[in-house]
Amino acid sequence: MWDLLIVNPFTNILLLIYAFVGNFGVSIILFTILIRLVTHPIMAQQIKSSAAMQELMQSDEWKKIQEKYKSDKEKLAQEQMRIYNERGVSPFSSCLPTLIQFPILIGFYQSIVRAISASPLQLLAVVRSIYPGLENITPAASLSALIPIQSKFLWMDLGQPERVILSILPFGIPVLAIIVGLTTFVQTKLTMTPSASPNDQSAQMNSMMGIYMPLLLFYFSLNFASGLAVYFIASNLVGILQYAALGKVNWKNLFVFGSPKSEKPKAKIIKR
Fold first, then answer.
1. S-S: 76 plus which of 69, 93, 172, 178, CB 3.0-4.6 Å?
2. By C-alpha distance, which of 208, 190, 170 is closest to 245?
3. pTM more than 0.70
C-alpha cells in the first residue's frame, strides 16, 4: 500500500521530469519545488495559525493568567489549554508542516534510491513500477528507455552519501550535510512564532524544533543518499522564499537564542 500510494507515484514523477530535463539532480530540485507548491495551502494555514497564536499571547487575558499562576505550572497549563480551546488555536500548529514532511521525505528517499538502482532485479522493479500511460508522452522513446538513470550531479553521486575529499585531510567533508543543517536552522528561526513567555508550550516546542530539526536532518544527510540532501536544501530555500513573499520573515530571529519573544507594545506618552 505504501509503494502504491507514495513511492510509485514519486518515482514516476521523478522519471517524467528527468525525461524532459535530462539531469537527475535538477529533477530532484524541480520535484521539490512542485511538492512545495502543492503543500502551500497547508503552509498558509500554518502561518494563519501562527498569527492567531501571536495575537493570543499578546492579549490581556493571556498575560493575566501568566501572572496569576506563575507559581503553579499545572494550573497555568490548564488555563492555557482552556484559552486555546476557546479561541480555536493549537500550540502545535506550527509543527504541522514539519510532521507532514516526514512521510514525504521517506517516500522521496525511497523513490530516489529506486530510480537510480544498479542491480538487474532492482532495475526490473523500476521498469515494472512505471505507469503505462506515461511511457509515450516524453521526448524519450519511453520512460523505460531511460533506465538506468545517470546519478551524477555536480561533484556527487546522488545515490551515495556525499563527501568532499581533500588531500590535506584524512577524512571527507560532508558539505551537503553541513548546508542542510545551516539552511534548516535558518528556516526554523526565520519562521518561528514569537512568544510572550519562554515558559509556555508553544515557546518550548519552537525552541526544541529549532535545535533538533537541524541536527536530525544533518544526520539524515550525513548517512543517506545525497539526493535526499539536495531535496532538503531545495525545500529549505524555497520555504524561506515562500515566507519572505508572504512578509513573514523576521531576520532578527537569527540573533535570538531559543524562542523569540513578542515585542511589547510601547507605552504612549500623553502630553499635557
1. 69
2. 190
3. yes
